[in-house]
Design a protein that fits this description.
265 residues, alpha+beta, 7 helices, 7 strands, globular
Length: 265
Amino acid sequence: MIEGLGGAFKVLEVNHDKNARASLCLVLPPVGSATSAIHLIEGIEQFISSPIFGNRQIQLQLCSPGRLSPRSSALLGIGFYLGSDTLRRYTQAELQTTFASHFAHPRGIRLVLYDADGDFDRDFAWLNQKGVLESELPFKRGRTDLLIGSGSRLDIQNINLLATLLVHSEYNGYWRLLGEQFKFEMEGLLNRHILTGLLAAPWVRQRWAQMGDDDRFFAALQELVAYAYGESIRVKQRRLLLFGTWREIPARSPDGILDEMQTLI
């Protein structure tokens, strides 16, 4: 499989940024859409006869071209979490990568990372603000990566959508106005649930990061996780099945943040 993807130099040795406890980190080639990414992973699943989606032993990291601003990076991370079909709890160890404290390019302990390996393929079509198709991306370098952990097909679709809207908003792409509308509505959603303060947390590490920023980010992430889990528990229903057995069925409140995020997406 590694040889089919271009050999160890391209998919194994090239990557210096991986989970600190991982024995192996496979770097897949960039593709043009969420559908292509899903098909690629499904092909690998079939080839190795083992699941990748929903596998707790396999952590996924998704790359999006274009360095987003700190606020948009926060929206990306929060939007991914609230829009996922899986509620997750995190430990700081799960967000610890080999570049977390690298002397030249420290990434910190974060869910969102800048320039995980410093490069990406620019040869993808880009619709500019006038609707003209350009042959390559408008930025020479810069990536925004998301450590999603055990992921699903929906996670890949959602992250692709959110990152596209945010990057078009910041780089004057064809969907800039739609991206601005998304940011406005998502910030309104957070405001309604008294979570606007989460956007002020350092979701992505800056070069001028201060001591304690890792802890401040993780505290904000834990607040988001606690809010989502609290809502899920409040609206959970128990239904009696045949033979007197019970099954817990999560239900979404029509005015809850999880349902609102799904509707927004």
